[in-house]
């Protein structure tokens, strides 16, 4: 058994909490948590937060007691550690992602109301919703997938300006960058021996925005279509994409 738990020692919401991890894989951790009735909302990207009253039952089910320092060390040694700032929520750490340009990286998906470090942010994406809750979506021939509008940052742009420009170029829909709300980011860890296309670029900023009233017409840019899709349609068309857990987290709350 490779499931570990530290003793309840972390105060929050009027009780103490433990961290539940696997030192092998997220899949093993999710299977164990589900079998013990731990809700998925307790997952923080590399561990589950579990309340003190569940500690004894989890140990009885096979989780091995250990120290908090050992928990951190095992996550680091296994490559499963997802770092985040206070107030942020880890969604997932996706290992060994292959990109169309031949580069490879592990990627952290994080929910946050703060934009990532400016100097290291090389791209941005925006999830735009209308009054019906539909999502503005574009198809990329290069990646062969549907996704939210987004792309690489140009010199002199803020991340929000980057996202707004890409949205206008890819869909014809124009919004004030000030209307975009930061909701998360992707953090890339290039793998050894793999080329990385942007020197020092490690973050993609994620925003949301809303259009109210009349729904803007969308255009086909460079032969790549754009559409308004229901959330269910968007998630179905995006099934299998490595970034999907982040999209689900953003769209679950209405964007």
TrEMBL record:
A Pfam match: DUF4031
Keyword RNA-binding: no
Every Nudix hydrolase domain range: 117-251
SUPFAM superfamilies: Nudix
Keywords annotated in UniProt: Hydrolase, Magnesium
Name of protein: Nudix hydrolase domain-containing protein
InterPro entries per UniProt: DUF4031, Nudix_hydrolase, NUDIX_hydrolase-like_dom_sf, NUDIX_hydrolase_dom
Cofactor(s) the record lists: Mg(2+)
């Amino acid at each position: 058994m490779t499931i570990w738990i530290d003793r309840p020692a972390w105060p929050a919401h009027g009780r103490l909490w433990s961290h539940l991890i696997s030192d092998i894989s997220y899949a093993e951790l999710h299977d164990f948590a589900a079998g013990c009735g731990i809700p998925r909302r307790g997952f923080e990207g590399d561990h589950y937060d579990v309340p003190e009253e569940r500690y004894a039952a989890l140990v009885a089910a096979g989780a091995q007691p250990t120290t908090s320092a050992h928990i951190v060390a095992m996550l680091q040694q296994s490559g499963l550690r997802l770092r985040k700032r206070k107030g942020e929520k880890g969604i997932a750490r996706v290992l060994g992602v292959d990109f169309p340009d031949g580069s490879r990286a592990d990627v952290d998906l994080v929910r946050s109301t703060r934009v990532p470090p400016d100097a290291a942010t090389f791209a941005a994406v925006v999830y735009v919703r209308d009054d019906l809750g539909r999502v503005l979506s574009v198809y990329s021939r290069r990646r062969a997938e549907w996704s939210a509008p987004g792309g690489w940052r140009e010199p002199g742009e803020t991340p929000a300006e980057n996202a707004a420009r890409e949205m206008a170029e890819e869909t014809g829909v124009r919004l004030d960058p000030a209307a975009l709300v930061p909701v998360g980011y992707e953090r890339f860890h290039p793998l050894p021996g793999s080329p990385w296309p942007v020197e020092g670029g490690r973050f993609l900023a994620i925003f949301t925005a809303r259009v109210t009233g009349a729904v803007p017409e969308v255009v086909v840019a460079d032969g790549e279509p754009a559409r308004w899709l229901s959330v269910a349609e968007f998630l179905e068309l995006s099934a299998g994409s490595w970034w999907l857990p982040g999209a689900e987290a953003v769209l679950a709350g209405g964007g």
